[in-house]
Specification:
Number of strands of chain B: 19
Radius of gyration of chain B: 23 Å
Number of helices of chain A: 14
CATH class of the largest domain in chain B: Alpha Beta
Number of domains of chain B: 2
Strand content of chain B: 15-25%
CATH topology of the largest domain in chain B: FAD/NAD(P)-binding domain
Structural class of chain A: mainly alpha
Number of strands of chain A: 0
Shape of chain A: elongated
Largest sheet of chain B: 8 strands, mixed
CATH architecture of the largest domain in chain B: 3-Layer(bba) Sandwich
Radius of gyration of chain A: 22 Å
CATH superfamily of the largest domain in chain B: FAD/NAD(P)-binding domain
Oligomer: heterodimer
């Protein structure tokens, strides 16, 4: 017996799958399962986070519903995965946030932040908020750079701390048989597997969405979203270096590195999330954990908002709309940061940790 | 009146789909009638995982060559010579090309599955298993323009002078209809799920058989063909049968109810008596005889008995072993006579000679002075908890079928080939398999003769 009903269910399922093994060529979950004959809570949470939800094992399974064995690995592991996020959340007092509607949390956070900045600027001077500002330092007429940097650094550092503490708890739980620090080779392997979404491919033909035809494009849209996010992050980092090392203040001209990176990233963050949402709406419900719908959509919407407000800010930065757009953009980014440890963002962190663990196991098996 | 096709394929598994695709590629219009609902489509194919193909050199997937001659010798061995040499050699020769052809139809291979390493040289495994293979074949067939109907129960065949004319069809919604076609490919499997029919040969024992595939393999097409003058082939009691867990569902338990633990222990019947050498040969060469062995025991039940030292030597099982701290406790849980089981195990343990255990080879761990002997892997059963799996015969498919020639053309009772009726898959497996089995042969028969039947049926239709 396990801590929760879903883990009991996942245990039963893995026992069924382990006596079949037809799916072992599809992804990492089944080979990892085969290395075990019994499953602890940590093992099941590890397998749940290793699953990329491509759906191949469902359409390939001779025992999936309506068969009486009722084997539905993608859905069961999706529920277990969502529950594992709450189980490892730091601080535990905030784990309940996962159970609530992620969309509401994110939108409330974004609106309140935007309102706060709008109010902040409006209180100072209405003419400043709705005025046209150009040239270096234009953004900081609305909010002093140091205040902006302090606020966002604090939000970002808190997110990092909460994520590190959560993933530590996860790693301790799943690392039992081998344990210890991950080696460089395993981390490199995991970076490759995550970077190319190796296991989001339906075992090679693409993922499954509506039915047993592999028509899913989530891999493409996930790449756009993820690399868009990284490019935006790189844009911000380069701009920070410009500011402190070169003394060059934003906004920068369109051809400058932070703007080029941010523009490309922003396009990814607009197109990618739209594609993911459309793909999500078409997915067969039997493959999904419907209770995490709000969390999934909330995170995708936050990424989309961040990308959209960023792109609009770039396009309209020399008009009177700059003030409100800057406020909205900062609001979206702030909300994204503070909800990161308590929303869908963590899927990437846990899955990466699971991939490192898997790479370790493969190496240790090959060595023995 | 119904529609008219060049080729009508009855059945929906590997053989049927290979026939449909090959007929369509040959330029024919094709309709596939699958009697099962969409989820259960494909008959036994949905439970398969590999195919045996001859090849002259190792490939990315296969670890070494497997020549036509070696394949032939293996077939000769398992069937004890009960095979049609001309057909069998033709199938083996064609199997060399099938391993490429089937990939062109969208099926993907993977190296042999964990726990089946002994098949790595001879057998190709489907990535994702048999249902993945089926999905790929259906997708290809539909893209090529093959029509497919599910829940399509064929109630009668109109056959005149050895010529197929039409099939009568009962649709769940639109009722009765008639489908005419220039050629027929019958690929609708055996009759293993038809308990009444099995009883004709097995008597009441058939009530204790478990059927490993879907309840739709009722053999109705086979029966119609035999009743309408097609020549019969094969012994009706012969089938592919393995020992599966007695707790498995009556139908469609598939692969996960099997047991690989026989060689690690002993097998007793309901009187606690051993009845066959559990260590006769390596398991992949012997698993397919145990269904018949158990079927011959009283009440068609047996118990694999082993101890805690070997639990991790075989694949984990769906149903956990039944455990007892003493032999008597275990016997009570199995409803066996404790004294009888204790006596059997004491005698067995006393007969075990010292040796070096190695389950990967025919080792020297033998018994002496008991009947039947255990000629390999014999070790004392002495470390509690004592464990057991109850097993019953699990019928995979039957061998009674329609006789065919090298073109997969059915032969009529008078020996003349039918002008336009072809057969492929389990419905004609008895031509090649008089008895016995070697892993992956059913799929070879299905793909090879399916491809031939489709090609020949299309050729006939277009002439």
């Amino acid at each position: 017996m396990h801590g929760t009903r879903i883990l009991d269910k996942a245990d039963r399922l893995m026992t069924v799958c382990n006596s079949c093994r037809y799916c072992e060529g599809l992804c990492a979950v089944f080979p990892a399962m085969e290395m075990r004959r019994a499953f602890s809570d940590g093992d099941l949470n590890y397998l749940a986070n290793l699953c990329h939800s491509c759906g191949a094992c469902y359409v390939d399974c001779q025992f999936s519903p309506p068969h009486e064995f009722n084997v539905n690995v993608p859905q069961t592991l999706a529920v277990a995965r969502a529950e594992s996020y709450a189980a490892y959340a730091w601080p535990q007092a905030l784990s309940g946030v996962f159970g609530r509607n992620g969309l509401v949390i994110s939108i409330v956070a974004a609106l309140s932040m935007a309102a706060f900045i709008l109010g902040f600027a409006a209180l100072n001077d209405r003419g400043v908020l709705l005025g046209v500002h150009t040239g270096p330092g234009a953004f900081y007429k609305l909010m002093p750079h140091n205040a902006m940097a302090a606020l966002f650094s604090a939000a970002f550092l808190y997110a990092i701390l909460a994520l590190v503490m959560s993933v530590r708890a996860f790693w301790r739980d799943i690392g039992a048989p081998i344990g210890g620090r991950p080696d460089g080779g395993s981390i490199f392997q995991a970076i490759r597997d995550a970077g190319e979404l190796r296991y989001l491919d339906g075992g090679g033909v693409g993922c499954y969405n509506e039915d047993d035809t592999p028509t899913d494009r989530r891999k493409l849209f996930h790449h756009l979203t993820f690399y868009g996010f990284l490019l935006c992050f790189a844009a911000t980092s380069v701009a920070t270096l410009y500011h402190y090392l070169l003394g060059r203040e934003a906004p920068y001209p369109w051809w400058d590195l932070p703007v080029v990176l941010g523009t490309l990233g922003g396009i990814g963050l607009v197109v990618g999330p739209i594609g993911l949402l459309v793909a999500k709406s078409r997915r067969a419900p039997e493959l999904l954990d419907e209770t995490s719908y709000g969390m999934d959509v909330g995170f995708i919407a936050m990424l989309f908002l961040t990308g959209l407000t960023g792109v609009l800010l770039l396009l309209l930065r020399e008009t009177a709309a700059m003030g409100p757009l800057l406020a909205l953009h900062l609001g979206a980014v702030f909300a994204l940061f503070i909800t990161m440890p308590y929303g869908k963002f963590v899927h990437g962190i846990y899955r990466f940790a699971a991939l490192v663990r898997y790479a370790q196991e493969r190496r240790s098996e090959a060595g023995s | 009146m119904g529609s008219k096709y060049d080729v009508l394929v009855i059945g929906g598994g590997n053989a049927a789909l290979c026939a449909a695709i090959s007929a369509r590629r040959g330029g024919a219009s094709v309709l596939v009638l699958e009697g099962a609902p969409k989820f259960y489509r494909g008959g036994n194919t949905r439970h398969t995982r590999n195919m045996r193909c001859a090849h002259d050199a190792a490939t990315e997937i296969l670890t070494g060559p497997y020549t036509e001659q070696e394949f032939w010798e293996d077939l000769l061995l398992v069937t004890g010579g009960q095979t049609d040499e001309v057909l069998a050699r033709h199938m083996i020769r064609e199997s060399k090309d099938i391993l490429n052809w089937i990939v062109e139809q969208g099926v993907r291979w993977q190296p042999s599955l964990g726990g089946t390493l002994s098949l790595g040289r001879t057998n190709l495994f489907f990535l994702g298993g048999g249902r993945a293979m089926l999905n790929a074949l259906y997708l290809t067939a539909e893209r090529l323009g093959v029509d497919v109907e599910y829940d399509a129960e064929v109630t009668d065949l109109v056959i005149e002078d050895g010529m197929f004319v039409a099939a009568r069809l009962k649709r769940p919604i639109n009722g009765e209809t008639e489908i005419r076609a220039t050629s027929l490919v019958a690929a609708a499997g055996g009759f293993e799920a038809n308990i009444e029919w099995l009883k004709q040969y097995w008597g009441e024992a058939a009530d204790n058989f478990l059927i490993r595939g879907t309840p739709y393999n009722r053999g109705s097409i086979l029966k119609m063909l035999l009743d309408k003058g097609v020549q019969e082939v094969g012994d009706p009691t012969q089938c592919h049968a393995v020992a599966i867990d007695a707790r498995a569902p009556k139908f469609d338990g598939g692969i996960i109810t099997r047991h690989d633990s026989v060689v690690f222990g002993i097998v007793v019947n309901k009187h606690s008596q051993r009845f066959y050498d559990e260590g006769e040969d390596i398991w992949p060469k012997r698993y397919a005889i145990w269904g018949r062995l158990v079927a011959a025991q009283p009440d068609q039940i047996a118990y694999i008995i082993f101890d805690s030292t070997v639990v991790t030597s075989f694949m984990p099982t769906l149903f956990p072993p039944i455990a007892g701290q003493t032999i008597a406790e275990l016997a009570a849980k199995l409803d066996l006579d404790p004294a009888a089981l204790e006596k059997t195990i004491i005698e067995f343990n006393a007969a075990v000679r010292p040796g070096t255990f190695d389950h990967t080879i025919l080792d020297d761990c033998v018994t002496e002075g008991i009947t039947p002997p255990k000629t390999h892997w014999a070790r004392r059963i002495e470390t509690p908890p004592y464990l057991a799996y109850p097993v019953r015969p699990g019928i995979t498919f039957t061998y009674l079928g329609t006789r065919v020639d090298k073109q997969a053309r059915m032969l009529m009772a008078d020996g003349k080939p039918s002008a336009n009726m072809f057969a492929a898959g389990e419905i004609m497996a008895g031509n090649v398999l008089g008895k016995g089995y070697a892993a992956g042969m059913g799929m070879t028969i299905g793909s090879v003769f399916g491809r031939i039947a489709g090609r020949e049926a299309a050729k006939h239709a277009r002439n």
